[in-house]
Amino acid sequence: MEQKLATQYEARANILKAMGHPTRLFIIEEINRAERCVNELTEMVGADVSTVSKHLSVLKNAGLVIDEKRGTSIYYRLCCPCVLDFISCIETVLKTNAEKQMDIVQCCGIPVAPRTRADSNK
Amino acid sequence: MEQKLATQYEARANILKAMGHPTRLFIIEEINRAERCVNELTEMVGADVSTVSKHLSVLKNAGLVIDEKRGTSIYYRLCCPCVLDFISCIETVLKTNAEKQMDIVQCCGIPVAPRTRADSNK
DNA sequence: TGGCTTTTTGGCTATATTGCCAAATATATA
DNA sequence: TATATATTTGGCAATATAGCCAAAAAGCCA
To answer: What is the value of ipTM here, to two decimals?
Structure first.
């Protein structure tokens, strides 16, 4: 992998990593529904304000959200709503794997880890 | 956030987190181009075999890839190619932010961190 | 100014991730 | 059976992430 390519992969991965946390995923969906300030999000998420603030800063650093001060609060909104389209594909992945799991159970009963050589010593 | 919702966000975030690493992103693209075994990927990535193997295991655990043994090797391929569609949106995010950065420079010169109260003591 | 409210930052601990090496495992082949 | 090849696992050290509390910032209003 050449350096230039590696940098590109890093930039892309950084955005996915920023999205890869349940609270941040919740925030992304929520601020798409309507602009929200830290306070509101904190109440919805049910964590410390500082925790939510840091999650927002991760999202902002990744360029996923835009913040705008209005009145006494800072409102966050989604930069590129196309990221919401990821979800249907993610659900496909989850569903596909749920089905795979079902198949294993149907064919072979409760799936069990295969015996390894080490097991023979037990 | 109720428990049931939280579980769903965790499941989704887990998939994004699995994708959120440069090497794994590379692997995802590469095995879409053509099935690859660990050996081949190791050479392309330029890391230890065990490192690549663990990355593949993260992807497999997230249900993103399917492995199939054929001959002496194990070939990996993409489970749900729709994940590749994420990239164009990710590029939009990157481009949007590059432009934002340009605007700041054009308007206001080289952007500088604003002075904080703490700076006054220096 | 002094006291609110809203948000961010610093600092800390706990936990998770990454990447390497060495070793184990699995399988094919001489 | 012994050896070689392909892959995974265990263990370790370095680094990163998450979440809380306390405190700092920043701005509003009496």
So the answer is: 0.88
